[in-house]
Amino acid sequence: xxxxxxxxxxxxxxxxxxxxxxxxxxxxxxxxxxxxxxxxxxxxxxxxxxxxxxxxxxxxxxxxxxxxxxxxxxxxxxxxxxxxxxxxxxxxxxxxxxxxxxxxxxxxxxxxxxxxxxxxxxxxxxxxxxxxxxxxxxxxxxxxxxxxxxxxxxxxxxxxxxxxxxxxxxxxxxxxxxxxxxxxxxxxxxxxxxxxxxxxxxxxxxxxxxxxxxxxxxxxxxxxxxxxxxxxxxxxxxxxxxxxxxxxxxxxxxxxxxxxxxxxxxxxxxxxxxxxxxxxxxxxxxxxxxxxxxxxxxxxxxxxxxxxxxxxxxxxxxxxxxxxxxxxxxxxxxxxxxxxxxxxxxxxxxxxxxxxxxxxxxxxxxxxxxxxxxxxxxxxxxxxxxxxxxxxxxxxxxxxxxxxxxxxxxxxxxxxxxxxxxxxxxxxxxxxxxxxxxxxxxxxxxxxxxxxxxxxxxxxxxxxxxxxxxxxxxxxxxxxxxx
Length: 483
Fold this sequence. Notes:
The chain is of the alpha/beta class and 483 residues long. 48% of the residues lie in helices and 11% in strands.
């Protein structure tokens, strides 16, 4: 069933073009040019979303928003602002709009296809699956020319689909040249995928970056199903969650900290908790997991996984604590997006002293990026800020020491260092742990209790005796959950 959209804009030309585009994307669209007709449309019909221009007249945008707030509390609303200066001079306040129920604000100029991205960001998996126009069989293959930066890659062995494909799937022919082998709505053809894998030796599939949120939603749904299935090997579960987490972190780095992106993050973090909480043989995967792709996105997932595994060793661990830390891990390096590109791509060992000083600002830059978001709690913000602080005071940005560092932040620091050692040196997890333990100066960076608990991560839990000990100088009380 097509989702219904109400478009409200005084520009008749733009309104007509936007309506035609959304209809082509399988939406059902009502388009009006004034606030009075918008209110009448809302009275007569139900809409998945309202896209409302701030400059609409008769009635004004604010009048329409107040009408919706009183009569249709749960209505999704996207407000379009024609001029960025309205925002810069405070004439339009995103916070004020949010209080009136606005889910998102979009500032022109933007291309009309951006409306598709805006709408899909607010759709549940059920909405996405219901709105796909299903076709019988498989469409003809289509060659397209588009720059490589527009595509996300997934290993062909790790691609899964619903019966009706949710988004276009491509193979790469050469640089900036792709072949669309499955169209959105096609009946999923495993035979076609296997043909490319076995006959043409294709090892990767691609989808457009604009469909990344769909990928995250569907594959997190699959991850939850796999995690609940006791018959599925733990490594399969970790791989599935890895794919979801990597694409999620990529989405954060690409589009920033938006409310709907944060909501998706919470769902991914719930999956991380379910995996950690319910998988007694996870330690086996953590000892030998080798499916590493040394990118910023894989790094964030591995830091999340090992941080959550350390927390799981403490009696004070909880769903809230693990999910809070998981979210912080996925965001922990977001400040690097504000660094000069050449520094962001370097490892500290490759930097000049001047470059390293710039690099050391990324925790503070990360805090600035998330500071205004009410959807991210203070614990997450403080972990982002402190994830490079060391227990012996040798960290940055503030050289905090001992009990002045949040325990969860020191856990993330340990997991972060461990993952870098493992990936940079191409070591097995147990070898990377050994490298940390044999560095007498380096091990002082962490509370000794955390080191003990990290060793336990790699040990069969049946051989461990539960302990209730907290880190000796912990700032976290055993009875208190992270807020």
